[in-house]
From TrEMBL, chain A:
Pfam families: DUF4129 (PF13559). It comes from the Bacteria. Residues 233-301 form the Protein-glutamine gamma-glutamyltransferase-like C-terminal domain. The chain crosses the membrane at residues 12-32, 52-71, 92-113, 163-184. Residues 120-150 are annotated as: Disordered. The keyword NAD does not apply. This is Membrane protein. Keywords: Membrane, Transmembrane, Transmembrane helix. The keyword Membrane applies. It comes from Streptomyces roseus. Residues 132-146 have a biased composition (Pro residues).
Length: 314, 359
């Protein structure tokens, strides 16, 4: 969805799983060897075990839902989407949801549950509505159903098909393990901080805020150099803002951070502007800085920290 | 209006309008000595000039500021936008308010290099070849629709811009100081135009886009026109060539921290590594970026550059120096878009300096 990436940006990931999925599908197609119509019921060599079929359907359902969740999480994480991109992302999300439900459903509906060896015969005969029209067959020339089933079973048991079957089972185990790992990581991931923070999160933020302000005040007292003290005050303001949810982006200038903080409802906008101006002078000029600058910075930091502290906790 | 050719339609034909055309402007108008200006004083003078120009050019606050930055930084300005947006008015207003001699060349397909630079002619009285200076011998030159003339004529002007001198008939003649070219180009017409090559675009310190006015500003412009009952507003001359040079000297006294120089280098290098860019900005682009950032600091009455100064001029200073990959034309991504993305992604200097600064 991203329009463009900067140089040295993230490399495309997921090539390994994609190859795995494609390989699995190809292998499954080889194993199933469908020689009937699209909607004909039947089963492949692995279909004799209903637990395996149910497991595959469940895996498809969980995998689809997981994929959709990851997609929604990734798209739009870096930047705001424009309306066209948003519509496209919503469409893809809906398709993923539908596919997550339809694919396992089709697996279950179209699979022929029953005694081993009976699947292929039923899938061919019966004149189901979806059966492809073919030339009329001479009953005398058609092989008996039982004989056909025996030949099919023999094909599975001997030759390269047996090797492919083993490979398929191994592949399935790998996919299940990987899916399990993904699910485990998904479930154990720390939750994203919500706007309505819990009491514990609030306590943590207050601790960070208090720590930031304390470090700024300590720097004011300890630093013999007024310039270093002003810079430390500003650094403390940055930490305070981060504690209140306004992080500094890597490309932010002091003005950018200030504007985002004010737009985010920073109560002490004037003090923040004063401290930002003092910081710019201290950081990027060689002007002499004295105790007056230090006092101004200290007063601004105190005002900002008071404003950022939640009501009733000051 | 100081410039003799300012309102003269004959200025389209680039023949000098003065009698003593064989004497260069530098000798005719000696630059008066000005007291040294501090960056703050220079910024105040520049702000006064901008305020005066804003009485004639409605809206366009940022383009006006950018043109002033180009003049303060000692460079040439390319204004690229649609016709009728006030490019000529803008250039003429700057010339008037700054007290600079002004000429205008309307570039056409049949314009020759000698029409720009001047050429020797035979003087019957002295029976000698005398050089007649072209319209380039001025202090503020409006090169209107520069992309309408063939590359040979473009090159003649661009060489004069780069060297601040003209070499004709074996002798080199310096151009007056200050020498500022404000060139305009129409970005949408391709019929009968000669797009400026990247190497020549690089000679412009910055590219300015005017853009349309807001509805309220456009209504205000119409109201101002009706009220003054004259085609153009009368501007006061608030400065002179010597003061412009003093303002430029003040820009040279603006400090730039090492971290900011590294930031400028990072921005320039990012243009070379960007996947959408075929050829990135040259080292000259880095110089332009820093010089414009210093001019921006002067306009803000500071004698030191901040990250905001660098960020604010990155797009006008570098976007026109990028050669994008051809397929981006279809996606309607231009250099400005790429530069904005680069500015958003390149890390700005950290809060804490790497080396402690003593008070």
């Amino acid at each position: 969805m991203g329009r463009e990436r900067t140089a040295g940006g993230r490399q495309p990931r997921g090539g390994g799983p994609a190859v795995l999925v494609v390989g699995g599908v190809v292998l499954a197609a080889l194993l199933l060897r469908p020689d009937t119509g699209l909607w004909a019921k039947g089963r492949g060599p692995l279909g004799g075990n209903p637990v395996l079929v149910l497991g595959l359907a469940l895996l498809a359902l969980l995998g689809g839902l997981l994929l959709r969740g990851k997609y929604r999480e990734q798209v739009g994480a870096d930047r705001e989407l424009n309306p066209v991109e948003q519509r496209l992302a919503d469409g893809v999300s809906r398709v993923l949801l539908a596919a997550s439900l339809v694919v396992p459903l089709l697996v279950l509906v179209l699979h022929r549950f029953g005694a081993p060896g009976a699947g292929r015969d039923v899938g061919r005969g019966g004149g189901t509505p979806s059966q492809l029209p073919g030339p009329p067959q001479d009953p005398a020339s058609a092989p008996p159903p039982a004989q056909h089933a025996v030949e099919a079973d023999r094909g599975v048991q001997f030759g390269p098909a047996r090797v492919l079957l083993g490979l398929g089972i191994a592949l399935l185990v790998v996919v299940v393990v990987i899916a399990g790992l993904y699910l485990w990581r998904h479930l154990t991931r720390p939750p994203i901080p919500d706007a309505a923070a819990t009491g514990a999160t609030l306590d943590h933020e207050q601790e960070r805020l208090a720590h930031a302000v304390d470090s700024g005040r300590r720097a004011l007292l300890e630093a013999a150099d007024a310039r270093a003290a002003v810079i430390a005050c500003y650094a403390a303001m940055e930490e305070s803002l981060a504690a209140s949810g306004v992080d500094r982006h890597v490309s932010d200038s002091p003005q950018d951070l200030l504007e985002r903080a004010v737009a985010g409802g920073l109560p002490a906008g004037t003090a923040a502007t004063t401290l930002t101006a003092l910081f710019r002078e201290a950081r990027y000029s060689t002007h002499a800085m004295d105790a007056g600058h230090r006092d101004l910075a200290a007063a601004a930091l105190a005002e900002i920290s008071d404003g950022l502290r939640p009501t009733g906790t000051a | 209006m100081t410039g003799s050719g300012a309102n003269d339609p004959a200025a389209r034909i680039p023949t000098p309008s003065r009698e003593d055309t064989n004497v260069s402007l530098t000798r005719r108008q000696p630059v008066p000595d000005h007291a040294t200006l501090t960056p703050r004083q220079a910024g105040e003078r520049a702000a006064a000039v901008l305020d005066e120009i804003r009485t004639a050019v409605v809206g366009k606050a940022e383009p006006l500021t950018q043109v002033m930055l180009g003049i303060l930084a000692g460079g040439h300005v390319l204004i690229e936008d649609l016709p009728g947006l006030g490019k000529t008015l803008l250039a003429r207003s700057f010339a008037t308010a700054l007290g600079l001699d002004f000429r205008r060349i309307q570039f056409t397909p049949d314009l020759l290099p000698s029409d720009v630079t001047g050429a020797p002619f035979y003087d019957q009285r002295t029976a000698d070849l005398v050089f007649r200076p072209g319209p380039v011998f001025t202090q503020l030159l409006l090169a209107d629709e520069i992309n309408r003339t063939p590359p040979k004529t473009q090159a003649a002007l661009l060489e004069a811009m780069a060297e601040s001198q003209v070499s004709v008939d074996g002798s080199t003649r310096p151009l007056p100081k200050p020498f500022v070219v404000v060139a305009t180009a129409n970005p949408i017409e391709y019929e009968g135009t000669y797009t400026l090559p990247e190497a020549q675009l690089d000679r412009f310190l910055l590219r300015v886009r005017m853009g349309y006015l807001e509805a309220s500003e456009e209504a205000g412009m119409l109201r101002a026109r009706v009220d003054r009952a004259a085609p153009e507003a009368e501007l006061r001359t608030l400065s002179d060539p010597g003061e412009v040079l003093a303002m430029r000297a003040a820009v040279e006294r603006v400090q730039v921290d090492d971290d900011l120089l590294e930031y400028a280098v990072a921005l320039v290098r990012a243009t070379r590594a960007h996947p959408h860019v075929q050829v990135g900005a040259s080292p000259r682009g880095g110089l332009a970026l820093v010089q414009l950032a210093r001019a921006r600091a002067v306009l803000d009455l500071r004698d030191y550059v901040t990250p905001e100064d660098v960020k604010s001029v990155a797009v006008p200073a570098l976007a026109h120096r990028l050669t994008l990959k051809p397929e981006l034309w279809v996606r309607q991504i231009d250099g400005d878009d790429v530069m904005r993305e680069i500015v958003r992604s390149v890390p700005a200097p950290q809060t804490l300096p790497r080396t402690p600064i003593a008070s």
